[in-house]
Design brief:
It comes from Alkalibacillus salilacus. The protein is α+β, with helices and mostly antiparallel strands. The protein folds into two domains: 15-102, Phosphorylase Kinase, domain 1 (2-Layer Sandwich); 106-262, Transferase(Phosphotransferase) domain 1 (Transferase(Phosphotransferase), domain 1), CATH 1.10.510. It has seven helices and eleven strands. It has helices at 57-72, 109-112, 118-137, 195-207, 221-229, 238-245, 252-306; strands at residues 15-17, 24-34, 37-44, 47-54, 82-89, 95-102, 106-108, 140-141, 150-153, 158-161, 168-169. A hairpin with a 4-residue loop joins β9 (150-153) and β10. α3 (118-137) runs antiparallel to α4. The longest helix is centred in the C-terminal third of the chain and has 55 residues, at 252-306. The radius of gyration is 28 Å and the shape is elongated.
Length: 307
């Protein structure tokens, strides 16, 4: 990591003119900033886009290359599509590098994870596992996989991942992570990039469907296991989550297989309950009918005797 502080503060309304491609970007608002730069919602040619700018040009180069690699992967739109890479002068006359990408419109998964049905959430995560597997097959992991970096795309009806700053080549050290989603924080593995690192983080995402995870800075494992064992809503996914936390899945497809099985059992349990209720209702109705018939016959007999 460079020692340069990467964030770039820009006021709403600022215009950046690309030096090489002559495109103008109108800053609308700050979307986020982190250890590798700042991301802004911009408008260009009447369209909304996202612009990532950093004082460290190597960040722009590296992340733009990652987006190019993601675009070359067949049938994967895991991250936003790359639109432009350029340099521009800021109002203070300093030249900075930036890249422009697709602005993924939708709802943040941080607000949806507790509202979606368990079946819908499981299906979204199952599809995400398929796409993560393709990323892993290319020799990369997402790295900073967390709910904050997930958007539910309203148009595609699927999860899209934003902020590729944590994408890391398999075998290298993880350089950007968030403590709660990091297996190193919980002392359940190292920070060397491999597929199981992403699967651990995805398991933590599923745990948030129970309730938001809020732990102290110690990262004590017993707190994690206590939370999981006391969960109620995510009970159908408990074993899948536990296996992922322990790094037992060889790859994303193996985790997807077990998640799909859990989903199948969860989906089947509802119709079975419905049929059972209906059968019980029918039995009760038949019993009541027999009882009523008996009462009518008895009353008829008594009337005959009295007459």
């Amino acid at each position: 990591m460079s020692s340069i502080h990467p964030t770039v503060r820009l006021a709403n309304g600022t215009r950046i003119n690309g030096l090489w491609h002559n495109r103008q970007y109108h800053i609308k608002q700050l979307l986020g900033e982190g250890a590798r730069g700042s991301t802004y919602l911009v408008e260009a040619s009447g369209k909304k886009m996202a612009l990532k700018i950093s004082r460290d040009p190597s960040v722009v180069t590296a992340e733009a290359n990652i987006l190019k690699k993601l675009q070359r992967a067949q049938s994967v739109s895991l991250g936003p599509s790359l639109i432009d890479v350029d340099d521009g002068y800021l109002p203070n006359r300093m030249k900075q590098s930036f890249y422009v990408m697709e602005y993924v419109q939708g709802k943040p998964m941080t607000s949806l994870v507790g509202k979606l049905s368990l079946v819908d959430l499981g299906r979204l995560m199952s599809r995400l596992l398929s796409e993560l597997h393709q990323l892993h097959s290319m020799g990369y992991i997402f790295g900073d996989l967390k709910l904050d970096n997930m958007i539910f795309d309203d148009g595609l009806k699927r999860i899209r991942l934003v902020d590729v700053g944590g994408v890391t080549q398999v075998g290298r050290g993880i350089r950007e992570y968030t403590s709660i989603y990091d297996r190193g924080f919980w002392r359940l593995g190292g920070r060397k990039a491999d597929p199981t690192y992403d699967l651990f983080a995805l398991a933590i995402c599923l745990m948030h469907a129970e309730r938001p995870l809020k732990f102290d800075s110690n990262g004590q494992q017993q707190m994690l296991w206590r939370f999981l064992s006391s969960s109620r809503r995510i009970t159908p996914f408990q074993q899948v989550i536990k296996q992922a936390l322990l790094g037992k899945y060889r790859d994303a497809l193996h985790m997807k297989r077990d998640l799909d099985l859990a989903l199948q059992q969860l989906s089947l349990s509802r119709p079975v309950q419905g049929r059972t209720t209906k059968t019980n209702t029918q039995r009760i109705s038949e019993r009541d009918l027999i009882t009523l018939s008996g009462m009518v016959a008895f009353n008829g007999l008594m009337i005959y005797i009295l007459l």
